[in-house]
Amino acid sequence: MYEIIDKRELCEKVHQFKIKVPHLVNKARAGQFVILRQDENGERVPMSIGGLDRENGILTVVIQEVGKTSGAMNRMKTGDHFADVVGPLGLPSHIEKFGNCVCIGGGVGIPPIRPIAQALKDAGNHVTTIIGARSKNLLIFEQELKEASHELKISTDDGSYGTHGFVTTILQKMIDDGEQIDMVIAIGPVPMMKAVVNTTREPKIKTFVSLNPIMVDGTGMCGACRVTVGGKTKFACVDGPDFDGHEVDFEEMTKRMKMYTRYEKQAYDKFLEDDHCRLAKAAAELEKENM
Amino acid sequence: MSETPEKKKLTTKERMQLPRNVMPEQNPKERVKNFKEVPYGYTAELAMAEAERCIMCPKPKCITGCPVEVDIPGFIKMVSEGKFVEAAQKIKETNALPAICGRVCPQEEQCESVCVLGKKYKPVAIGYLERFVADYEREQGKIEVPKLPLSTGKKVAVVGSGPAGLTVAADLAQMGHKVVIYEALHKTGGVLIYGIPEFRLPKSIVASEVDYLKKLGVEVHTSFVVGKLDTVDELFESGFDAVFVGTGAGLPNFMKIEGENLNGVYSANEFLTRSNLMAAYDFPSHDTPIFVGKNVAVLGGGNTAMDSVRTSLRLGAENGYIVYRRSRKEMPARIEEIHHAEQEGVQFHFLTNPVRYIGNEDGWVTGMECIKMELGEPDASGRRRPIPIEGSNFVLPVDTVVVAVGNSSNPLIPQTTPGLETNKWGNIVVNEKTMMTSRPGLFAGGDIVTGGATVILAAGAGKVAARAIHKYVMGIPFDEENKEETEQAAKAE
Ligand SMILES: Cc1cc2nc3c(=O)[nH]c(=O)nc-3n(C[C@H](O)[C@H](O)[C@H](O)COP(=O)(O)OP(=O)(O)OC[C@H]3O[C@@H](n4cnc5c(N)ncnc54)[C@H](O)[C@@H]3O)c2cc1C
Ligand SMILES: Cc1cc2nc3c(=O)[nH]c(=O)nc-3n(C[C@H](O)[C@H](O)[C@H](O)COP(=O)(O)OP(=O)(O)OC[C@H]3O[C@@H](n4cnc5c(N)ncnc54)[C@H](O)[C@@H]3O)c2cc1C
Ligand code: SF4
Ligand code: SF4
Ligand code: FES
For residues A58 and A99, is the Cβ–Cβ distance under 8 A? Predict the structure, then answer.
């Protein structure tokens, strides 16, 4: 059992968990991930490492509610326990002295960018980080990334904060301005990573993306996480999660991620219904008390 | 109590002519709708009747057919006398997992294949008897924890909790060593828990083996991936005197043909893991989903293929096909599994091999283009090599495919353990007498050494390794194989 020592909402449907797992934290490197299981009947869900406090042995993960399991996890509280925290899984991000690095994060891809930016900075690179969200109130980890990078640039789709547009609007401008970029790493929703890769393809900038296909064991045993990279099948959980973005078959990956949509919807609808009942009951009880 | 009434004393010849006792089992029509175990097992009466058939050969052939040399006539005699618990203990002298082996050993290729009765009649049902006594011992709550010797103060780490790891752990704990098991998944048992389905091997049996280990003082850490959390070297540094690696052959093979990454195409490992380990058959009560369409093709002819196709029927498939590139004769699956699959309505396409998958716009598999094969000259495995027949292509409409064409070894431990020798298939190389690897104090056994094999071979390797590990940590030289016995004999004189 793994205790949640701090849990808070960062923005709508996105929650941050701090979990005490000293051994894992001690071993983990930027770019790796963990697998969480909430309870005995729970699914094994992969989550990126959003922070490693080695001194106190604390792991940070940030979970966005997209379905039943992530929804149930986000309803856990400080002091609750996960049945399992497995890791560190996957290969660490490739860290070396590239020169000028651009780290790009979108949505819940922003937290895992932090340890990577930090590691690149520690390796002597100049790190510019670009983070983006739909709107200002959905932007997370701004302060953390300001600290982890030399420069932080922000975009919002609706223009409520930072540059009006997408992370690629900023990246494209940097390229157009003739800024020297030696390496890009992008983590976020598939359309965002695809857009980044398309932006850097022409100017031939080395670009890594961190893939998040459906996984089960996360140790190379099942092959659920297969992705096509450079025409070859790779297992993202052991060969990745980082890959050369220009080689990734995003179209196939997008389709594979929809394999269980029907079941996921069924489970999520039922979860929301139960949740609704639970909330209604709690409200009714509260009302009774107040009468 | 053991005296059999005079009238029942049969001559050897009469015994040999007794018919083999059939094990009662669930009706095929019913059982394809549930995950309950197919055979019910012998009753005490049936077991004693079956034991009566064994003619107690003075030089029992059957023992030579068993990879761990279970004293077969020895335990069968006890069964015939109604001493079931003693019989179970007799088996356990060489095989730590009789309830499991009785169910999953390929008896028709091992012990039962050489039983003398088999020449003229049907062999003694050794597997059924083994299963019966082990079940009897467990169900009667007769499993006793032996008195453990004084602690030796030595610590051994066991990586992986499949049959190899479980056996090593049990044996070493009973020799007084401290044993800690590290298992990557959240449940112990290896293939026994994530691969072999409930209808063939109830999970409660595997769980009771693990409980037994815990009673012997073995510590179990699940969700611990060695090589990621601690490496083998770090285990040594943290104070283990020896390490055993029993990580199995967990890397699924694919055929590397067009369309293999379409939705609906599974590896058998994923398909079975979802259903068994994650209990996807119980979705949405359990959270992990599984997809099974109307027409399910399973590629391969081994136990894994049979398990997959029978699982698919239980999950609601209308047609379950086995697509195998050789003929029925070459199928490596246990005969009983093939027979059960047939009874349950599985359709076999022999001498057939897929060449590509056909998908729709959304990326789902809709068909499998196959080619017919014929058998040519024998290949390295001694089986006749299948050769494609040109122009014989046809399309089989399918919406789910399960690829069950074998596993390779997971490279994680070799990759993270400098100086560990492997062969060209990535299997760990060991000295077969001791199971020690190229690294002193580091032992290995089971599928990680042999490639995908059998439960009893993995358990047998565990036995050999446990004896060698004991010597290694106690500083007894390996080559003085019989020193202890010789010394004891000398003392006795
Ligand atoms: C390496 C990796 C790192 C990830 N990091 C994060 C993270 O830091 N924060 C975060 O919020 N999410 C992260 N994810 C995604 C997260 O695992 C899924 O959102 C989660 O599993 C959804 O489960 P659910 O039951 O709530 O949703 P579901 O209703 O089951 O599914 C919603 C969608 O999530 C995806 N998904 C479903 N099951 C899995 C699975 N077992 N593995 C991966 N994706 C799945 C599918 O595309 C699906 O359409 C990561 C995924 C991977 C592979
Ligand atoms: C579906 C299926 C059906 C089968 N049916 C039969 C049958 O009927 N009869 C028969 O005799 N044989 C059968 N077999 C074969 C048999 O199950 C195997 O030969 C046997 O389980 C091998 O045992 P093992 O201990 O070597 O490894 P496994 O059973 O594979 O166990 C290895 C364990 O090590 C763990 N592990 C791996 N890497 C690490 C790591 N880095 N750190 C920690 N833990 C790790 C794995 O998670 C796993 O739990 C079947 C196999 C399959 C897949
Ligand atoms: S362990 Fe297997 S091979 Fe040996 S006697 Fe038992 S069933 Fe037969
Ligand atoms: S060979 Fe057959 S008959 Fe002879 S001892 Fe073995 S089981 Fe009994
Ligand atoms: S998740 Fe099973 S192999 Fe990657």
Answer: no
Domain count, chain A: 4
Question: Taking the CB of residue A286, how many other CB atoms lie within 10 A of it?
Answer: 10
- Domain end call among A89, A123, A143: A89
Nearest CA residue ID for atom 42, ligand 1: A214
Residue from B413, B105, B108, B104 nearest B251 by CA: B413
- What is the mean predicted confidence (pLDDT) over A170-187? 94
**Residue A175 to chain B, least CA–CA distance (Å):** 35
The domain boundary, picked from A38, A71, A89, lies at A89
Q: Does residue A249 share a domain with residue A182? A: no
B-chain residues near A69 (CB < 8 A): 287
Closest atom of ligand 2 to CA, residue B456 = 11
Select from A24, A216, A266 the Cβ nearest to the Cβ of B229.
A24
Taking 70 as the threshold, does the pLDDT of residue B90 lie above it? yes
Q: Are residues A85 and A15 in the same domain?
A: yes
Q: Which two tokens stand for residue A209?
A: 């993306």
Give residue A58's pLDDT.
95
Name the helix (H) or strand (E) containing A193. helix A190-201
Contacts of A44 in chain B (CB under 8 A): 186, 278, 288
Whole-structure pTM value? 0.91
- Give the pLDDT of residue B470: 95
Same domain, A236 and A203: no
**A72 and A150 together in one domain:** no
Nearest to B417 by CA among B240, B195, B245: B245
- CATH number of the structural domain spanning residue A137: 3.40.50.80
Instruction: Kindly report the nearest CA distance between residue A10 and chain B, in angstroms.
Output: 26
- Decide if B229 and A223 are in contact by the 8 Å CB cutoff: no
Residue nearest to atom 3 of ligand 5 (CA): A220
Q: Write down the pLDDT at residue B486.
A: 47
CA proximity to A44, closest of B192, B181, B184: B184
Model ipTM value:
0.92
Q: Which pair of structure tokens corresponds to residue B346?
A: 């599985």
Dihedral of CA atoms B179, B184, B189, B194 in degrees, nearest 10, equals 180
Q: Is residue A141 domain-shared with residue A199, that is, in the same domain?
A: yes
Same domain, yes or no: A218 and A203:
no
Give the integer Cα–Cα distance in Å for B352 and B300: 10
Q: How far apart are CA B398 and CA B325, in angstroms?
A: 18
A83: domain CATH number is 2.40.30.10
Average pLDDT, chain B: 90
3 state SS of B52: coil
Q: Are the Cβ atoms of A260 and B254 closer than 8 angstroms?
A: no
Q: Are residues A205 and A249 located together in one domain of the fold?
A: no
Report yes or no: A79 at the B interface, CB cutoff 8 Å: no
Q: Is the peptide bond before A241 cis (omega within 30 degrees of 0)?
A: yes
Chain A stretch 203-262, residues whose beta carbon is closer than 8 A to a beta carbon of chain B: 216-217, 219-224, 226-228, 233, 238, 252, 255-256, 258-260
Instruction: Provide the pLDDT for residue B3.
Output: 47
DSSP of B262-318: SBTEEEHHHHHHHHTTS-GGGTTTSS------SEEEEE-SSHHHHHHHHHHHHTT-S
Q: Do B254 and A266 touch (CB under 8 A)?
A: no
Ligand 5 midpoint to CA B370 (Å)? 27
CA–CA separation, B290 and B315 (whole Å): 9
Q: Which structural domain, as residue segments, surrounds residue A98?
A: 93-210
Same domain, A105 and A185: yes
B149: pLDDT strictly greater than 90: no
